[in-house]
């Protein structure tokens, strides 16, 4: 779900989730639960061994199976880093293993981003993305930066937290349209608030987007942030960023939107370790209908979408359907 302070997402903004699925093959059509789990395990094991070669090979194999860059980032890289972080938190690995895993993943992200950057189209907007002062975890903000770059933004990624005063001076010197601030540790909430107030002193004000794992904490009042928007995942972050600067959906066809919706449904089904028959049974729909829908070959009623969302235990916005 998406929580926003001073912005209500429009249809055009949320459609970014659908559009990128079409353009960059967000989720492959011919992937089984076992395939995805195998690729994830290979990548995690490579990270645990500190073997960058095997990690790269796992990513390459995933791309050969039909994964686009968004799917690689979300379904493999992000998943693996979360798993590694949990192992460290539970004392199963030491900090050295965790740090090396992060470096390997960042290197792979650099390579993937470089390849995509050669054919992206600029949208004319500039963003600065940074972890909040004091927060040294950079992977999430790096991923948001990469997704913005893929979307056509010119992005200045800070590479790590910097003092608030220096951030303000940097933003003033770059004619920035939006500043994305990442926070992964709730200990730095006060720094987020201070950063927002400092950035608001700039005339004209850049739009301010807040995101990061720390915002999943139920004790945090998301409405307390004085920025322009709060996003709880990377895809929502890009959708909100587009809305903040007034970008439209680009006029994609019905067929393209159906293909993207089918791709998203398949991704959620696999995440829930469900077969097509499982989803069909849970949603009281025919399996062949689910199959055609996932392949983008089936028009769909709103009632069917509601059934599928309920069966997958997700909200409509997570399927790219806005709640206006």
Descriptive report:
The structure is a single chain. The chain is an alpha/beta fold and about 325 residues long. The protein has two domains: about 10-245, 3-Layer(aba) Sandwich (Rossmann fold), CATH 3.40.50; about 255-320, 434 Repressor (Amino-terminal Domain), CATH 1.10.260.40. Helix content is about 55%, strand content about 5%. The chain has helices at about 10-25, 35-50, 50-65, 70-90, 95-115, 140-150, 165-175, 190-200, 235-245, 255-270, 275-285, 285-295, 300-310, and strands spanning about 125-130, 155, 180, 205-210, 230. Strands 2-1-3-4-5 form a five-stranded parallel beta sheet, with helices on both faces. Helix 2 (about 35-50) packs across helix 4 and helix 7 (about 165-175) runs parallel beside helix 8 (about 190-200). It is globular and about 60 Å long.
Summarize this, please?
The protein contains 13 helices and 5 strands. It has 324 residues and is α/β, with parallel strands linked by helices.
Salient structural properties:
alpha/beta; 2 domains; globular; disordered N terminus; 434 Repressor (Amino-terminal Domain); 324 residues; 5 strands; single chain; Rossmann fold; 5-stranded parallel beta sheet; 13 helices
Question: How would the blueprint of this fold be written?
Answer:
Layout: H1 11-23, H2 33-48, H3 52-64, H4 69-89, H5 95-117, E1 126-131, H6 139-150, E2 154-157, H7 164-173, E3 178-182, H8 189-199, E4 207-211, E5 229-231, H9 234-245, H10 254-271, H11 276-283, H12 287-294, H13 302-312
Parallel strand pairs: 1-2, 1-3, 3-4, 4-5
Helix pairs in contact: 1-9, 1-10, 2-3, 2-4, 4-5, 5-6, 6-9, 7-8, 11-12, 11-13
